[in-house]
Amino acid sequence: xxxxxxxxxxxxxxxxxxxxxxxxxxxxxxxxxxxxxxxxxxxxxxxxxxxxxxxxxxxxxxxxxxxxxxxxxxxxxxxxxxxxxxxxxxxxxxxxxxxxxxxxxxxxxxxxxxxxxxxxxxxxxxxxxxxxxxxx
Length: 136
Ligand SMILES: [Fe+2]
Ligand SMILES: [Fe+2]
What we know:
CATH class: Mainly Alpha
Bound molecules: fe (ii) ion
């Protein structure tokens, strides 16, 4: 049993974003596992960076679709992304500065909970909208 597992309940109904969410979940699991395995500082940092980069890419991608399809919920959704982006930056900096395993685990737990909530509540809303536009 993984730290976080994707299931159909997380589907937003648009394959490309389901795939990205699966990948995000995979990297969250990697961070948790790296922390558990007591890998060295650099390896932990690398997973951390990966997670941050992929999160940023994923947000940009969603926001591009909001733009392309004139999604009415865009502003509120983008604000949620912006807040999370800042929190993740703060975590990364703290983890770097303090070389802290506890913080790395805290980040994994925080992102797991945030992502679950965000997909189920916010991403599913744009999913419904995009499906009405014919996307799958
Ligand atoms: Fe998402
Ligand atoms: Fe989102």
